[in-house]
Amino acid sequence: GSSDSEDEARPSAAAAAAAQKREERLRKFRELHMKRNEARKLNHQEVVEEDKRLKLPANWEAKKARLEWELKVEEKKKECAARGEDYERVKLLEISAEDAERWERKKKRKNPDLGFSDYAAAQLRQYQRLTRQIKPDLEQYERLKEQYGEALYPTSDSLLHGTHVPSKEGVDRMVADLEKQIEKREKYSRRRPYNDDADIDYINERNAKFNKKAERFYGKYTAEIKQNLERGTAV
């Protein structure tokens, strides 16, 4: 009787173990299925986001950062106004010495001196420099506007010659600026010394400058030809 009960217990234990293994496999299969669906959903979201980014303008990131910065500035201004503080003063107090120095270097790089390219560029640079240092007298402007009214703004029919008399301060400012320009011009446009021992291979000043440029660029290629011509051995 005991052997019969043992024989019946073995198949039931084997069936339970098989059922447990089957349940374990089904559980892993369901986990893998859920992970696959989650990965598919995430991939779809990434594709949608990438498509949105590609459709945005090229400078969208810069514009977004600029708008966020402007919103922060507006919030900071409102906070300062609520506390009765001056925003510009608070902003300067928060700037470190390193940031101030870096911004100053960046400001200088915005208008670098690239040297002489042509007279039009040099004239434009001079004009920009002169206009930057102009400090208009708004009080004088208001007085002139009250005095002359519409005549202060000339038209094509206005007679301008002899109608304006500059102030002494304006004349002094112009003279000081002209003297500064002359001093700077003399510093950078000095006349080169004349060498009496140098070969005379030019017919005028302009031809001499051209020959110097040619010698600077092509002298190493034509040195042997020049020596042969001077010796009379050129073929």
Regions with pLDDT < 50 over 5+ consecutive residues? none
Q: In what range is the share of β-strand residues?
A: under 5%
State the separation between the terminal residues, measured CA to CA: 131 Å
Query: Roughly what percent helix?
Result: over 70%
Taking all Cα atoms into account, the compactness measure Rg is 43 Å
Q: Could you give a short account of the major beta sheet?
A: none
Instruction: Briefly note the structural class of the backbone.
Output: mainly alpha
| Average of the residue pLDDT scores | 79
What is the number of E strands? 0
Q: How many distinct helices?
A: 8
What is the helix/strand order?
A: HHHHHHHH
Task: Assign an overall shape.
Answer: flat
Describe the protein in words.
Residues 1-22 are annotated as: Disordered. The chain is mainly α. The chain has a domain at 19-56. Helices cover 73% and strands 0% of the residues. It has helices at 2-55, 60-83, 87-94, 97-109, 119-132, 138-148, 168-188, 205-231. The protein starts with a helix and ends with a helix.
How would you summarize the topology of this molecule?
Elements: H1 2-55, H2 60-83, H3 87-94, H4 97-109, H5 119-132, H6 138-148, H7 168-188, H8 205-231
Salient structural properties:
235 residues; mainly alpha; flat; spliceosome; mRNA processing; Pre-mRNA-splicing factor SYF2; nucleus
